[in-house]
Design a protein that fits this description.
Number of helices: 4
Helix content: 25-40%
Strand order of the largest sheet: 1-5-4-3-2
Largest sheet: 5 strands, antiparallel
Radius of gyration: 17 Å
Strand content: 25-35%
Structural class: alpha+beta
């Protein structure tokens, strides 16, 4: 019985701590989609600095922002795990932002989700 409990605990914990890649996060589908009159460059210039100053359980994140063929992408990493991906695509009226969320624990609201919304 003890062996079964140890095996079950190990399987459960490995599923909880397995790091996600940006593709895995995006494949889950967007949590939210926003439209903006701002172009993708202006939206990324608003989100990225806010995220760089946000600790996740006391750990400083790594925030990666890069250009894509259609706009920009921001990735928020904590301890080698992708927590958020934001794809911002330019269009004729401004831009469309898709927010993807990996495995994350949030207590009392998630400031990073609010940052994406506020920057539109």
């Amino acid at each position: 019985m003890k062996k079964l409990l140890v095996v079950a605990s190990t399987v459960f914990l490995s599923g909880c701590i397995a790091a996600m890649t940006p593709k895995e996060v995006v494949d889950k589908g967007p949590l939210s989609t926003y439209t903006s009159s701002k172009n993708s460059g202006d939206v990324v210039k608003c989100i990225a600095p806010k995220w760089e100053e946000t600790k996740d359980f006391g750990i400083l994140p790594i925030v990666s922002a890069r250009e894509t063929e259609s706009g920009h992408r921001i990735i928020f990493y904590v301890a080698d795990d992708v927590k958020y991906v934001v794809d911002i695509d330019n269009n004729t009226s401004g831009s469309k932002t898709k927010l993807y969320v990996g495995k994350t624990a949030s207590y009392g609201g998630d400031k990073r989700i609010k940052d994406v919304s506020d920057c539109q």
